[in-house]
Amino acid sequence: MSSRINALDPSQTRSWLGRTLHYLLRDKAGAFGLVLFLFVVLSAVFAPYVAPHSPLQQDLHSSRMPPAWHEGGDWEHPLGTDNLGRDMLSRIIYGSRVSLTVGFFGVLISMSLGLVLGAIAGYLGGRVDAVIMAIANLFLAIPYLLLVVVVAAILGRSLINVILIFGLTNAPLFVRITRGEVFRIRKSGYVESAVSIGAGRARILGHHILPNLIGPMVTVATFEMSGMIFYEAGLGFLGLSVPPGVPSWGNMLAHGRQYITFSPWLAAFPGLAIVVTSLGMNLLGDWLRDVLDPKLRRTAS
Fold first, then answer.
1. Mean pLDDT of the region 227-238
2. pLDDT per residue over 97-111, tens digit each?
3. In which band, very low, low, confident or very high, does the pLDDT at 68 lie, cut at 50, 70 and 90?
4. CATH number of the domain where residue 275 is located
5. CB 66 within 8 Å of CB 73
6. CB 97: neighbour CB atoms within 10 A?
7. What residue numbers bound the domain in which 89 lies?
8. Which of 20, 48, 110, 121 is a Cys-bridge partner for 132, taking CB atoms 3.0 to 4.6 Å apart?
9. Is residue 139 domain-resident?
10. Residue 248 and residue 233: Cα distance in Å, rounded?
């Protein structure tokens, strides 16, 4: 009971936040990654207020207008327009909503499934472990991109379908990682003490094992969310992600490929948005790994 009270103590919470901020300020790359990530997230959340135009508004008189700093450009469309005269900046801002939605909810589904199944497999062992890991290894043996493309082609173009595809096909990775962590944690002293005093399996899993999995899972989830953004763009490029009318970075890349020789900005700016977002998330993931892993933190200090 005392450990729970201490965990809710405001002074300890402030102390934890202070240490986290200290490590963030020491890690310039992590701080830079956090800034990039927050910039993209805030742009997506406040897209109606940030975007200068509607992403679907067409103006054929302004078709394929170059960026404002090029000859023939106009600051009314800072990043130029596409072949239908739609503002590139507005479409990139709204496109971030699709990428972040797929990444966040895809990781949420896969991590939730992975935590539950991996914890059960790692703690119970025996036949339960053998069955769960056999299924997980079967999916992991299939090339990931091939599996995603085949399933997406069968289910059709839909945001919900893309989220479910990534959530379900990426779950085996979290299952394997969780199982390995549970094997390690269940041999620790505090778990053996809980077993010796007669604690049930559900209590041990819920109060002693799962809380210690949060750090590694958050770190892995950050990197996997970055990967899902890349894969969603790849599906969009192949015409297997959201419908063509929905602004997304993958759709914009596929569309800009047709004009790459004489209007390169149509593909360059969506590609740059993907790179910036993934870079920010990878730098943030490195920082989270260092903060949430006490061994790495002690080494760094």
1. 88
2. 999 999 999 999 999
3. confident
4. 1.10.3720.10
5. yes
6. 18
7. 26-300
8. 121
9. yes
10. 8
